[in-house]
Amino acid sequence: MSDKIRVIVSGAGGRMGKEVIKLVLQDEELELAAAVDRSTMDTDAGRLVGLEETGILVTSNLEAALAESNADVLVDFTIPQSAYENTALAIKYGVRPVIGTTGFTPEQIKELDKQCQEQGIGGLIAPNFSIGAILMMKFAAQAAKYFPHLEIIEYHGDQKLDAPSGTAIKTAEMISEVRKELRQGNPQEEETIEGARGGYYNGFRIHSVRLPGVFAQEEVIFGGYGQSLKIRHDSYERAGYMPGVKMGVQKVMGYTGLIYGFEHFID
Ligand code: NAD
Question: Is residue 200 predicted with pLDDT exceeding 70?
């Protein structure tokens, strides 16, 4: 028996799923157990990502893959509508879920944790697998204790639907847990153009820039007496999430229960 971690990739034909397939095929500690996507049936998983043929065809039947492929972990980057069902199915078959798909409710997370505990396996749901972005959030929260005056600016491509980004909201939440209550700026301040000061969150502002050509960036700017501090993370491509995905796949083998948020893996 090989001691490699056997991984099923769900959402294999998607932008993130293809990066995960490349990671699994190119990493000596991981092995592709199956590749699942509802819309890329009968394609070889290796060929799908421009690598050598693997003999593993992308299938549309996740349940059969879970039942038959002797997998250790399911990595899922699909759509919010399928993510809960896919995760619950993996747990049912004793396959540890590592989920990047967004959109879980707190009730669903609680329920999936219960299912993982019952099965005696680990699970991970991480809305952000970027180790750099997680560090940025942690450093920003640390700085906010000493610099309570701050603004967040996040940059994404112009086709992004939601603003501010999930990462900006998460940053704001983590900052708010430690920052002393303070409403920034001049109380008499007036906007002559609506929105000029950005979105209001617990006394500070969040600005969302949307431009073609941009992938994902965020900076937190702190102002103090006679000084300022900027903490910035730049993400250039989806491959940047893969070190986090690999770390998640390895970690999930070693505990029981569901962990929500990659930040719990980073001291
Ligand atoms: P995408 O649209 O490129 O790919 C999604 C793929 O999932 C498609 O190929 C689709 O056919 C497939 N799919 C849909 N339903 C399925 C099902 N029930 N079973 C199997 N396959 C199914 O999307 P993407 O950009 O790869 O993003 C996927 C998800 O990952 C989104 O929810 C996105 O928000 C999230 N995401 C998370 C992170 C993170 O760090 N956690 C990073 C980027 C994207």
Answer: yes
